[in-house]
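Justification of computing resources. Each target in the renewal requires a structure prediction run like the one illustrated here; the chain below, 132 residues long, is used simply to show the kind of job we budget for.
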Amino acid sequence: MVLILSVWGTVRFFAALRWWDVLSEFGSSLSPLYLSVIGAGWAVAGGVLISAIYRRQGWARLGSFAFILLWLIEYWIERIFFQAQRANLPFALTLSLLTVVITWILTFLSGTQSFFLKSEEYEQPVEKSNTA
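Resulting structure tokens:
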């Protein structure tokens, strides 16, 4: 999910840059500057988080949950305040709640916790040297 949302942020960033003139000309409800900054922010945050997941850093587990939760909050703020009314509100609410529940469950599974706590087999503990 983090990778998908990071790619989405990257696409949003480049699309805002590519269509800057069109968005400005037709008075988009969200400015091209906002779209590009938010897209770049999600891309960078996702890149950092993906790197942390790959390196098994302990904070990445909760960071993933926070990343997805913040993305949903941003989605709903944009949907409520800047987009035209849509008929699929129950579907969007259900899907958002389902995403939060699935992410919560996956974040706190014992396998997920052990993934971030277990070190690689080839890693050896650092021994202190008595030489000066």
